[in-house]
Amino acid sequence: MASPTNFTLDFALASHPGQLRPLNEDAIGARPDLGLFVLCDGLGGYNAGEIAATMAVSSLLSTLADDYEQAQAGEVPFVPRKALTERMIEMNGVISRAAANSAAFEGMATTIVIAWILGDRLWVAHAGDSRLYRFREGVLEALTRDHSFSQELLDAGMVTEEEARVLPSKNLVTRALGAGGEVEPEVNDFPLRVGDVLMLCSDGLTEMIDDVQVAGAIFASVPDVQRAAQRLVDMANAAGGRDNVSVIVVRLAGRKGLEPRRASAAEPRPSVTSTAASPSG
To answer: Candidates 1.10.10.200, 3.20.20.10, 3.60.40.10, 2.170.270.10; correct CATH number of 7-272?
Structure first.
């Protein structure tokens, strides 16, 4: 089966329970042959959050791969937005039913963010406050907007960014898989270029370090994606590590059949743009 992405990919995954929690309820996984990466954060305070996160990562890597492979075989048309939306809704039901059928799993839920590199485009699907960033030519840009109570207050102009970071309810998410009832995944697509770096993360990273620090860590590490992933995890832990922290870093090293792009010493210093960019060039 031909790979669906037009890029050669360098990638790294890193996860750590943090400095305070004995259990890591995050889950991460990848199908690099399909350009598919998934990160989940089992919601703190719920039973079996790590079970929900692991179920979601394992199942979605499998079912999304099946959808693509069936389309390649000519069995069904492949529409990325439809596949991502339907499979996340299906997973929401699976987790909800598992929670309803076992007292040990009661209330379990997970956030999720998916990156799927198809052709020259990035498809992003998410529910909750796990994020995806794109680092391009020294500029870090958030491609997701949190589904959280604090983000809603921020969007309404009721709090500042500084106030939102310290709200008692800042970790209350408004969308998640298995949180009860229906879920509405948010799915968007964005153009990609050789040299782009994608970073998926749980809120254990973004609660501990800000976007300027994230941009600096990626800038200082690329093209070594393993170094970038480990540096981000280490920075979160050095800042206190109050939660589990997980990251996936993916670098578009080159176009298939062409020489990989090499980082230039003349590239601009890192900076940060506004959150949740629109899907434009």
So the answer is: 3.60.40.10
Q: Would you state the pLDDT for residue 192?
A: 98
Q: Which two tokens stand for residue 130?
A: 């796990």
Per-run averaged pLDDT (10 residues), the chain, 281 residues: 86 97 95 97 80 97 96 87 98 93 89 97 97 97 92 80 72 88 95 98 96 97 97 98 97 81 54 56 45
Sequence spans of domains, the chain? 7-272
Largest CA distance in the chain: 58
